[in-house]
């Protein structure tokens, strides 16, 4: 049983954040539970001095930008939406190594936010960093599991001061705080900060990103329907990954050489460990058939990932 008290957390935040943030501040909001909770909490502490910024990197889920804008409106925050997709695609051109991806994305995020800060006058950048982010990013005696873009991906020199109000919280505690703040995102499944860039294994080109965007949408939609129909328990996180693997298949009576998609669904409590979810066979078949029918010129094989964390991580990169 968690000893975390959202009431005590907010009492401390309302008292201490105005001392830590003594001027205009920008908060990076992705629409996920971490950054949205951070935005709601900080807004209560510093009010009009906060500007929420959502950056469309081009690596977002289908219709994500429209959904995030609605979330920001409902929060009643001042907000700005920035389309930086071309810049991110260019920065990741030719990049294959997952650590280089994450660090490139982290550095470019900071560039974008510093440009906005110059216009807005903000000296502080608030992030929804939580404990697993900095634990997995390594440092000291900790091995680097993967550099989270908002920790290990930050440049060495920055013009803004980083503020991380959720830094010591785990995912279950953040969700508890979200419920306390009556936020609709409390049960929203996690989405990686680097977005679909780490769900395209290998070079995350615009074309390959669009393939995984569609595959992710199909996997999420079919699982959501199955949960609603009582066929299965809702996983903690579920998505699709595009592999750098091509295999022989058949379309009609013609040999086809296409890409492979892996579907991943896990149950977790705090994101530090996870167990592969049991997806009913009928649901897996619907996901596979819909992906291969919708993306038949690109995908001819769908596999299901049954690996726990550890030894795997939740995301593939």
From TrEMBL:
E.C. designation(s): 6.3.5.2
Catalytically driven reaction(s): XMP + L-glutamine + ATP + H2O = GMP + L-glutamate + AMP + diphosphate + 2 H(+)
One Pfam family from the record: GMP_synt_C
TM annotation in the entry: none
Record's keyword annotation contains Ligase: yes
Pathway in which this enzyme or protein is active: Purine metabolism; GMP biosynthesis; GMP from XMP (L-Gln route): step 1/1
MF term (GO), any: GMP synthase activity
Protein name: GMP synthase [glutamine-hydrolyzing] subunit B
Species this protein is from: Marine Group III euryarchaeote CG-Bathy1
